[in-house]
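hey so i finally got around to running the thing on that chain from the lab meeting. sorry it took forever, my laptop kept dying and i had to restart like 3 times. anyway pasting the input first so we r on the same page abt which one it is
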Amino acid sequence: MLAFSVPAVADDQLSLSTGFDYSSGKYGNTTSTDILYIPVTGKFESDKLTLKLTVPYISITGPGGVVQGIGRVRATTAATKTTNSGLGDITASAGYNVYSVDSLAFDVVGNVKFGTADANKGLGTGKNDYSAQIDGYYTRDKTTLFATAGYKIYGAPAGVKMSSVPYGSVGASQKLGDETSAGVMVYMAKSPSAAGSDQQEVTVFVSHKLTPSLKIQVNILNGLSNGSPDFGGGVMITGYF
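ok and heres what got predicted. didnt touch it at all, straight out
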């Protein structure tokens, strides 16, 4: 969500990102669930088209019933924690810049989350999810305002009813210099499961170009509802080729 970029680059560009994201929350349970998410993301940008593929490693320590990115999908009374780890859900997306005039731009983006995470270990639902969204950007001087409105269709694992839900975000990024920018983003989503709660969270981030071809981004998250982690944070490093 934080790796946004103003659309439409002039030349073909390939980037590779990696890092980690850690979060912890109770999600309505009595015991917290801790999630470590380590993605490797490749992105290709060409004129108005952006293609992205993410292959993650994930480790979850908790009482069970919580899925990364969704929240609680099954209620549990377990007080003991177990740790499971392995390949997470591989995601792919394609975005196209449909409008770009002066300071205003809009992208249409389609996303597919493949159910590659082991559902038996509680690392995912084991089902594919599909979503479509519109991303908007408005830039004036050194400030960029951005927003997303989307709709996601969830695959339902055995014994769990999953609904299709809307989601969205709003935020702003401010250039603090030639190499550094900072911003804030608020994310909201309906819960697809009756066992969970709606997601509401705010993230503060700082991005800095270490070199013309290397960027680092740090973020801190605060959850505002039972559907989101209580807190979280992460670091991503991106190289451009």
